[in-house]
């Protein structure tokens, strides 16, 4: 497709000599076909799932007070449609790992403190080591479980990352038709928005699940 440029346009010397530039873009009809609903055959009621997710998701940050202590909170508000058209998760939740390490740190410090106090008395060495576990055993055990579980989950997440990336590429091509309440990819069959995870799992090429 050739587009006539006005005189004095800032283009390359070779293109300026002829006064035309060859556009590699597709035709208008081809570009518009991507958003055509396979049910109603229209495109004026269709929108990409990524745009719907961005418009229907908001984050509210504020502060909450618990027993006189202020803590920062983040609330996620989503419409039902945005939740149904949510993208696949590409990164694991690192909050559990951080909380587990924090509990381990608190438990170790408390255990050392209690052991130091008991060792300064007439308590034996074994009592100074094992007796504080009655108090510090809970944070140590919970922190260890949270840390180990988070590490295992992160390894599994990284091993599954290629499939999740393939799901992401599929998600970036999904459209939604407001008129018929169906989601679709160009040239593919329509499906309900709530079936998006299953659709991505079965349409990711070599990573597709049977």
TrEMBL record:
Record field: transmembrane: 96-118, 130-152
Key words, A-Z: Membrane, Transmembrane, Transmembrane helix
Name of the protein in question: Uncharacterized protein
Source organism of this protein record: Nocardia yunnanensis
């Amino acid at each position: 497709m050739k587009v006539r440029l006005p005189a004095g346009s800032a283009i390359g010397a070779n293109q300026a000599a002829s006064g035309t530039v060859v556009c590699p873009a597709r035709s208008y009809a081809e570009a518009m076909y991507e958003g055509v609903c396979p049910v109603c055959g229209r495109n004026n009621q269709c929108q990409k799932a990524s745009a719907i997710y961005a418009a229907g998701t908001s984050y509210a940050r504020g502060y909450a007070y618990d027993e006189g202590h202020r803590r920062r909170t983040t609330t996620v508000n989503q419409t039902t449609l945005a939740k149904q058209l949510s993208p696949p998760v590409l990164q694991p939740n690192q909050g559990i790992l951080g909380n587990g390490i924090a509990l381990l740190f608190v438990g170790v410090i408390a255990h050392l403190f209690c052991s130091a106090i008991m060792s300064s008395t007439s308590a034996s060495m074994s009592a100074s080591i094992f007796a504080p576990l009655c108090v510090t055993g809970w944070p140590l055990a919970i922190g260890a479980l949270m840390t180990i579980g988070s590490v295992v989950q992160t390894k599994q997440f990284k091993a599954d990352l290629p499939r999740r990336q393939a799901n992401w590429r599929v998600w970036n091509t999904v459209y939604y038709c407001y008129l018929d309440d169906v989601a679709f990819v160009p040239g593919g069959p329509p499906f309900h928005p709530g079936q998006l995870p299953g659709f991505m799992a079965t349409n990711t090429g070599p990573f597709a699940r049977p």
